[in-house]
Amino acid sequence: MGQIKQTGTVLVTGGNRGIGKAIALQLAGSGYDVVITYNSGSDEAEQTVKEIQELHVQSEALMIDLSRKDEIPGFITQLKESNPSLFAIVNNAGIYTGNTLSNTTNDDWEKVISLNLSAPFYLARELASSIVEGGSIVNISSVYGLVTDPWGYGYQASKAGLIHITQALAKELAPRVRVNCVAPGYIRTDINKEARENVNFRAKVEKMTPMGRWGEVEDVARVVEFLINPANSFITGQTFVVDGGISL
Ligand code: NDP
């Protein structure tokens, strides 16, 4: 039996690079049209749109700084002009800020909360009614939304909050729309590029991870596709940990 082609448009925030790009390509490969957003990486956005279109689906890239709530209404209007309905939203755009308690500034805290937590909430609120029946929202959290470390307070709070929002939204939007979450462990992307340059850190992560390796972006993308697939229509409000076992 051949694979069934999916239809509809999926919005992937931060789809120009890293995990978001892998998600965008994975979904495009399944037949979805994909709208990606980016903040400053316009070259990567152009390249990703090209790669998506080569998979014979529609794609466009929209620029938005999702940490700025004043930019969201204009973005929603622009998105709806060409996409009055959506099949799914993947809230992926995010930053990591890591610091000790005393060295975390108000700005550090507010920036990471605005982008990683407030933006997914605003997008869900503004776009939930545009998602078609059987559609989905998938939020990209982190294992640091489940386990804690006295480091990166804002990041951990944002990712834990996202798991809670996922559960509340799943209850509110059921049975029309499902809402799930993915919590990755250490995945090789730009977000940890600097840290990975330290050979001891690289080895430490491998040692701490029962599967003995860093995750790849495709490890996350495949799970997102599974969650969006309407065949999995009895799964909602769940957080899928994709971490090679590091949080065990
Ligand atoms: P990258 O740093 O590779 O990519 C970050 C993405 O977020 C880019 O597309 C970037 O766009 C976008 N972005 C950054 N700032 C803004 C902003 N102000 N407004 C809008 N978009 C913005 O990160 P990853 O791919 O690794 O991370 C993707 C998600 O996965 C994040 O939510 C992250 O927290 C989560 N995650 C990642 C893990 C990892 O180990 N990699 C582990 C656990 C969770 P632009 O290029 O234009 O700046």
Walk me through this protein's architecture:
42% of the residues lie in helices and 17% in strands. By secondary structure, the protein is α/β, with parallel strands linked by helices. A 7-stranded parallel beta sheet has the order 3-2-1-4-5-6-7, sandwiched between helices. The longest helix has 22 residues, at 106-127. The N and C termini lie far apart (37 Å). NADPH dihydro-nicotinamide-adenine-dinucleotide phosphate (NDP) is lined by residues 14, 16-20, 38-41, 44, 64-67, 92-96, 115, 140, 142, 184, 186-187, 189-192.
Uncertain segments: none
Strand order of the largest sheet: 3-2-1-4-5-6-7
Give every kind of bound small molecule, once each.
NADPH dihydro-nicotinamide-adenine-dinucleotide phosphate
Please name the CATH architecture.
3-Layer(aba) Sandwich
Count of helical regions = 8
Number of domains: 1
CATH superfamily: NAD(P)-binding Rossmann-like Domain
For the secondary structure, the number of strands is 7
| N-to-C order of helices and strands | EHEHEHEHEHEHHHE
Structural class: alpha/beta
Kindly provide the name of the CATH class.
Alpha Beta
- The span between the termini is 37 Å
Query: Helix share of residues?
Result: 40-55%
CATH topology value: Rossmann fold
* Largest beta-sheet details: 7 strands, parallel
Give the percentage of residues in beta strands.
15-25%
Q: Mean of the pLDDT scores? A: 96
Shape: globular
